[in-house]
Amino acid sequence: MLIKPEIFNKFGNVICGVSTRFGKEPRPPFDFNMSFKVGDDTDAVKKNRKDFFDELGIDGSKVTFQFQTHSTVHNYVGETCFFNGSDGLYTDKEDLFLAVNVADCVPVFIYDSVNKVVAGIHSGWKGTQQRIVTHTINTLIDKFKSKPGNLYVYVGPGISVKNFEVGKDVFDMFDDEFKEMRDGKYYVNLRKDIYTRLIRQGVKAENVEVSEYCTVDDENLFHSYRRDGGKSGRMLGVIGQFKI
Fold first, then answer.
1. Under a CB-based contact definition with an 8 Å cutoff, are residues 61 and 80 in contact?
2. What is the C-alpha separation between 45 and 60, in angstroms, rounded?
3. Whole-angstrom Cα distance, residue 16 to residue 121?
4. What is the pTM of this model?
5. Most CB atoms within 10 A, among 97, 140, 198, 202?
6. Beta carbons within 8 Å of 28's beta carbon, 6+ residues apart
7. CA quadruple 153, 158, 164, 168: dihedral positive or negative?
8. By three-state DSSP, how is residue 104 classified?
9. Which CATH number does 2-158+203-241 carry?
10. Using an 8 Å Cβ cutoff, are 30 and 38 in contact?
11. What is the reported pLDDT for 1?
12. In the chain, where are the structural domains located?
């Protein structure tokens, strides 16, 4: 099973999907795991990735991956490659697909419907606080003359404010409108922060889809590092454009 956002449905050239822990063969605790870095069997991960890409209808050899470091670094993809130390990818090329690893951090996928540019972003608390999505959109504006009003955005599954308890040091880094206190504990709403920044940057509200899935609560659907610690897999999100 995979999750496909509805926001891109009107564009026949755009493919976007996020894997879940549902694969052909249950293998607890690594059900349909997409990561080579969590202690899972390498051959199993390769098969999982192939099954996922096949379900999306894309060629796995044309997927660009990145080693995510909770930064604001984002890179242009002109051909299939691997970036060591990156949290955002963008391209105007067809038949190139951009991958974002997902556990509890929020994946964000963008499509410029006029300039035919896609972007995939990993926005954890550090990236969100440092506004990686804003920085990436500014790059699209600079490089491709993108206009925020022409952007379509999917803010994907991630940890909900209900479950994202943080220390006071992290809490203090966020604006008041994106944080809550309950029973003396501190919580941050990452997806609200991302959505609000999008709208303030000029993205139309009707062009933004925000997933309601929580990776911690929806245990049957998602892996979660916050919930399960080291004994958990990872999901994968992908966006790209088919050549039509």
1. yes
2. 13
3. 13
4. 0.97
5. 97
6. none
7. negative
8. coil
9. 3.60.140.10
10. yes
11. 80
12. 2-158+203-241
